[in-house]
Amino acid sequence: MKKIAIFLTVVIFVVTGVISLESQVYGQSAKKVLMFLRDGESYDLDLMLKMEVGTMTMLLKKAGFQVDIASSSGQPLAGPHEKIEKVMRLSEIKLDDYMGIIIPCLNIRKVEVGPEVVAVVKKALADGKPVAVNNSSVIMLADAGLLKGKKYAFIVDPLKMTPPNLGFTDAIYSGPGVVQDGKIITCGGCPAGERYRSVQDRTPELTQAFIAAIGP
After folding, report:
1. Do 58 and 98 share a domain, yes or no?
2. Which residues are paired to 68 by β-bridges?
3. How far apart are CA 102 and CA 210, in angstroms?
4. Quick one: 17 and 109 in the same domain?
5. Whether residue 2 sits in one domain with residue 58
């Protein structure tokens, strides 16, 4: 009986290991993060998909995370050469499955904040999950009222722009580097900022801060 028990234990262990391996192979990792892509016209989309989205995805996967990509529309995103075909619709995702949200800049100038986006970000923060946001997407947080009383990063001080962005009135500008206040992590340096405005691209630094904020 003892030998049978040992044999069954070994079989269960092996089968469990195979199932675990298969789940990782087919993208069912228990460690998942959500990358939200804003819809809109992007300037130099190829650059942002390769150097921003690509960098974030590479570092997250290297840290052992499965990265699911979603947008409000759920439509594929394609530049002249770079493209992302598998994009989920934000309204269809289950936030409880994810350990945090990261939002690239994508160099989209016009920022529109849909109610479903605000709801997802607010729930993530309420659940104690980190939300990392790069450059122009930080405007989305300000417009949603999520930066009130918070330190944040942006490429320049939005209140000194012409015209000033009054959505940042109650927030605390802290430069273009990576800034963390609670579970909100912001950054003012993206690939487009480095190419066109000589502001250092801090996408890797932002992503690593996001990974650290998730914790073990």
Report:
1. yes
2. 34
3. 8
4. no
5. no
Cis omega (within 30 of 0) on the bond before 104? no
Q: What single DSSP character describes residue 23?
A: H
Full-model pTM: 0.85
What radius of gyration, in Å, describes the C-alpha atoms of the chain?
20
Q: pLDDT by residue (tens digit) across 121-142?
A: 999 999 999 999 999 999 999 9
C-alpha dihedral, 39 to 40 to 42 to 46, nearest 10°: 40
**Pair (17, 99) in one structural domain:** no
Structural domain including 11 reads: 1-28
Do 140 and 183 belong to one domain?
yes
For residue 10, count CB atoms less than 10 angstroms from its CB and return exposed for 0-12, middle for 13-18, buried for 19 or more: exposed
Extended beta strands in the chain, E state: 32-36, 66-71, 77-78, 83-84, 88-89, 101-103, 131-134, 151-152, 172-173, 179-181, 184-187
Mind listing the pLDDT tens digit for each residue in 22-72? 333 333 457 999 999 999 888 899 999 999 999 999 999 999 999 999 999
Is the CB of residue 167 less than 8 Å from the CB of residue 142? yes
Residue among 35, 118, 110 at smallest CA distance from 77? 35
